[in-house]
Amino acid sequence: GGIGLVGTCAVTGMPQWKVTAFIESNIVVFEAFWEGLWMDCIRQANIRMQCKIYDSLLALPQDLQAGRALMCIAVILAFIAFLVAFIGLKCTRCSEDNEQAKGYMLLTSG
């Protein structure tokens, strides 16, 4: 539960959803464009990286808006699964030491 929650949050915030690289005849001129759900980044010659957060939600393409919504739902579901798994642990007393109910809670959280 916890690893899934951390992984989902990390993937949602990273800008590497779409990576485009431009390499000209000279290897020194190297640019990589990273497009994420929340920002665009450009990295030039492995030296400098600049990121810009999207200005408006309404100006984004529909696929990006859908991706944002789905990843936010995934984070919420991962958090709920983490809470259900925590309640189902043997060291908690939420279900009055009912081992079968705790087993079902752990199974549900997975």
How would you characterize this protein structure?
With 110 residues, this protein is α+β, with helices and mostly antiparallel strands. It has three helices and four strands. The protein has helices at 2-13, 62-87, 99-109, and strands at 18-23, 30-35, 39-44, 48-53. It has a four-stranded antiparallel β-sheet, with no helix packed on it. Helix 1 runs antiparallel to helix 2 and helix 2 packs antiparallel against helix 3. The longest helix is centred in the C-terminal third of the chain and has 26 residues, at 62-87.
Task: Name the helicity range.
Answer: 40-55%
Strand order of the main beta sheet, please?
1-2-3-4
Give the overall average pLDDT: 80
Largest sheet: 4 strands, antiparallel
Strand content: 15-25%
Poorly predicted sequence stretches spanning 5 or more consecutive residues: none
Put simply, the count of helices is: 3
Query: Could you tell me the radius of gyration in angstroms?
Result: 21 Å
SSE arrangement, N to C? HEEEEHH
